């Protein structure tokens, strides 16, 4: 006989059993949205975009592969978000599992810790944009800012920061490409693509300056 898993509210004895079923449905919904939450509410967006810019600036189209970039971005996200996870575990998850606080209180404490991280990375200009779009009065304090406004403001702030870092990464590699192209034109070798010649020089330059340490260190420090 094949096992059967079924969630039903038929025959529930009172509101308590119905509440348990609703909690299970809510947890399943949260698990389904977990990948999106990881992208929207953490440092993942900035990291993966900067690493993608780095790959394009160097000129290696498929190296490092996408799986490696995403994996590195995930581990760096876990490293950067570790203080937030510790706060969540200490103030929200731990007390909730010990039955010291209710589920609603735990969710509120968890939301507060994540909001604090997002506020540190969100520009006031971006936050003001969504306040105007929502036609709300200017909040007097951070607690007055709704989370549904903070999340998109945080995301566009992360995108702007990632593109700024990507621009700074592109500059030295672009200069090297221009130098190689100028030398090839001076030598009359206009049929030879400059990228073919500049790629080995960009790789050795990146290795000599310990590029991975510089990029990763700058990324982590950019979160303060």
List the helices and strands and how they pair.
Layout: H1 15-40, H2 44-58, H3 66-80, H4 82-97, H5 103-121, H6 124-133, H7 147-186, H8 194-208, H9 211-221
What does this structure look like?
This protein is an all-alpha fold and 224 residues long. The chain contains nine helices and no strands. It has helices at 15-40, 44-58, 66-80, 82-97, 103-121, 124-133, 147-186, 194-208, 211-221. Helix 4 runs antiparallel to helix 5 (103-121), helix 5 (103-121) packs parallel to helix 7 (147-186) and helix 6 crosses helix 7 (147-186). It is elongated, with a radius of gyration of 24 Å. The mean pLDDT is 80.
- The proportion of residues forming helix, as a percent range, comes to over 70%
Q: Provide mean pLDDT, rounded.
A: 80
Structure class: mainly alpha
Tell me the number of helical segments per DSSP (H or I, 4 or more residues long): 9
